[in-house]
Amino acid sequence: MLAAFGYRDFRVQWIGACSSAIGTWMQIIAQNWLVLSLTNSPFFLGLDAFLQQLPIIMFTLIGGVFADRYDRRKTLLASQYIQMFTSGTLAVLMYMHVVQVWHIMGLSFITGVAQSFGGPAYQSLLPSLVDEKDLPNAIALNSIQFNLARVLGPLLFAATLATFLKWGYNEPEAMNAAFFLNALSFLIVIGTLMSLHVKHVPPTHTRRMREELQGGLHYVRNHGSLVALIVLAAATTFLGFAVLTFLPVFAQRVFRGGAGTYSRLMAFSGTGSIAGALVVAWLGKFKRMGVTALTMQAIYGLLILAFSMSHTIWLSEVLLLFTGASLMMVFSTVTSLVQLIAPNEIRGRVMSIYMVAFRGGMPLGSLAGGYFATIIGAPKVIGIHGSLLFLVALYFLLVRSHGIRESG
Q1: Hey, which of 66, 109, 142, 246 would disulfide with 378, CB 3.0 to 4.6 Å?
Q2: CB 281, CB 148: distance < 8 Å
Q3: What is the predicted pLDDT for the residue at 309?
Q4: What pTM does this model have?
């Protein structure tokens, strides 16, 4: 289950990424609650998520060319510096009591630009840290650190909020500590990136950026299973991630709670995701990975449909636990399949196309979901999304596979 930890560079990078991700999730919780407090509108929650993810659609393909052409570690470092700057800027604005919703939206967009270059670099660097046989295990363990942060980040935010409120600070001042802590957390991942032993091997020849982009698109287009996996990833994020975007609305309007209730709901989702990633790590590279991913997506759709209808908080927490596990099994398995298919010399471009679909589905789903949530309510939107996810999985499982059932 922990095979990839036997590689020194992977182990070091995992620790740095986990530390930074904990700070990031603290900020996500604080920022979502801040947006809802400033606007009292689920639309602005969706808009904020949209603006952070929009650069993924706009620039990630270029980021993939950068990942294949230039030193991936240096690209990652630049991305971390920019994200540290945006988090620190928001902390200063909050400290000065001048923050407005347009500040948050603008900083979210800049953060997304940094992630559009850092994401392909990280995804294509990961296979360089371990042997191919341990790659699915490394991807699953990488998912664990991300979702461990989803648990610890909200819990640490709740503890920080409670401590500062106890000391006499008001809620906005207490939330601002999350932005400061997130800015500091980037120093850890910057340090670990600098300590990696992996060496950059320049490509033997480079073409114009447009030609390299076309080369990556041509490769994906001529591998039917890759196209199907990318479509599946887009559908999963477009329909499946809205439940996390609108958790503040459920906490406030369905369960009549506050920031503490929201952070607890996020912690249950994150705990389930860790469990799902551990299962994938234990399985490693196994037969019928494609069938497993589709089956878990069908289960995920039914679970979020049930969550949308629940008005009992303990039942909703249990459902979030299982939705986190099933979603992470889908995510880890599909990502492993794409990584295993893509050759190293073009992996950055293949992973950038995958990330456009995977990450690009989030903002579009959040924006559309935010609009319809203002009309029919967030629970009904989530219920519709769950039903559609179930139908998409059934299509690939029972109607036409497009190579997914045969993958793995």
Answers
A1: 246
A2: no
A3: 92
A4: 0.69
